[in-house]
Amino acid sequence: MSSVDTGPAVEGGDEISWVEKARGGDAPAFEKLYRKHCDRIYALCWRLCGRDAGLAEDLVQEAFLRAWNKLHLFRGESSFGTWMHRLAANVALSDRRIRMRRVAREILMDEAVVRTAIGARDITQGLRSDLEQAISQLPERARSVLILYDIEGYQHAEIAEITGMAVGTSKAQLHRARKLVREALES
């Protein structure tokens, strides 16, 4: 008996049956969905929260808790993984908006230091050593758009819907994020 299911059957029949069983309150079926998708959801949350492992773990738990409570809203128009991924992105972005409101009304940003609210620590531009670090130092909105567009594959219209910004703003933030990452990697 294999503890990890892989292959086409998981993508199709098994996952659909797990969703249906979980809708009926079957916790072991939902646990199978969790185990199948938790690593990808963790990676998304980890990137969106600026590489804070503890916060990412909390966001993953919150995302799956919401999924359990809102499973009746899953219509099956996409795969469960796609639905879960979008739900997790919303959880992480919502958490960040709340966190940013707590940090301060406005944080002055200059070219030397970009501060991001990720738990209790700030990241400065001088600490960049790789791509993930460069991404984590981006301003919040630019980082969100870059991750959702370039890493996760969302389109600008979807990003606008998730983040509450205009499509044009999403495109401008992506341009800005790419420029800042390039500059960080070149220095």
Question: What's the structural blueprint in terms of helices and strands?
Answer:
Blueprint: H1 8-23, H2 27-48, H3 53-70, H4 80-103, H5 131-136, H6 140-151, H7 156-163, H8 167-186
Helix pairs in contact: 1-2, 2-3, 2-4, 3-4, 6-8, 7-8
Could you characterize what this model shows?
The chain has two domains: 1-103, Rna Polymerase Sigma Factor, Chain: A (Orthogonal Bundle), CATH 1.10.1740.10; 106-187, Arc Repressor Mutant, subunit A (Orthogonal Bundle). The protein has eight helices and no strands. It is elongated, with a radius of gyration of 18 Å. The protein starts with 7 loop residues before the first helix and ends with a helix. It has helices spanning 8-23, 27-48, 53-70, 80-103, 131-136, 140-151, 156-163, 167-186. It is mostly helical. α1 packs across α2 (27-48), α2 packs across α4 and α7 packs across α8 (167-186).
Report the average pLDDT across residues. Answer: 80
What is the radius of gyration? Answer: 18 Å
Model regions low in confidence, pLDDT < 50 over at least 5 residues: 1-12, 104-128
Task: Report the helical percentage.
Answer: 55-70%
The CATH topology annotation of the largest domain reads as Rna Polymerase Sigma Factor, Chain: A
CATH architecture of the largest domain: Orthogonal Bundle
Number of helices: 8
Can you identify the CATH class of the largest domain? Mainly Alpha
**Distance N to C terminus:** 52 Å
Strand content: under 5%
Characterize the biggest β-sheet.
none
Query: What order do the SSEs take from the amino end to the carboxyl end, as H and E?
Result: HHHHHHHH
Let me know the CATH homologous superfamily of the largest domain.
RNA polymerase sigma factor, region 2, helix turn helix motif
Estimate nothing, just give the exact number of structural domains.
2
DSSP strand tally:
0
Global outline:
elongated
Q: Provide the structure class.
A: mainly alpha
